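In this supplementary section we document a worked example of the pipeline. Step one takes a protein sequence of length 229 as its only input; no multiple sequence alignment statistics are reported here. Step two produces a three-dimensional model, which step three serialises into structure tokens for compact storage. The input and output of this example are shown verbatim.
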Amino acid sequence: MSKLEVDISAKMFGAQKVLGEIRFEVPAGQRVALLGVSGVGKSTLLSLIAGTETEVEGRILRPSWRIAMVFQTPRLLPWRTLAQNIALVPDAGGLARARELLGAVGLADAADQYPEKVSLGMQRRAALARALAVDPDLILMDEPLVSLDATSAAEMRRLLTETLDRTGAAALIATHDRREALALADRVLMLDGPPGRLAEDRQSPLDRAERSDPNAVSSLHMDWFGADV
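The serialised model returned by step three reads:
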């Protein structure tokens, strides 16, 4: 099997239904945005795909892929340096490879800094480096740009795109930002609710080269999503 298959009819937390019908597939190397407002169940869906949440009505079929998760909060241990945080990942290759991965996300000079001494944007980049330590086939990202200023968000978008280009990994990117979805993804799965359900599955009208141009994204998103953005 060379694709992720998601076929969910419901996800319950006690008596509360948080997800309804959601069915889609992600082939190898594809970048997919999960677009929806806060509270629609994007994080829960990512947790189900990652396997950290298991009880669900339906099924999720994962290929023999290595899966990594980039959480909305960086979740770095504050008493360890950035390099030490990455070296904790099983089979990551120790501190030498941790420094190499930090260099790949532009943090070579911050490897020995503690998380509280660097910006949120730098913590997010370190979290991405940690995800890369497992050589993932699929990266799950939960609001990777939330709470970043415009400059940091643009830098993170560039870094995410370059990282996915370099590794060839597939990606599922949860976001509430329509411009972000257009800028990062080959496909956009639009969720509504709650309970969250798949309302629409759209192929991006922009190729990967075009998506690197912020003007192309800005000029298109109003027409593509409608004037209610």
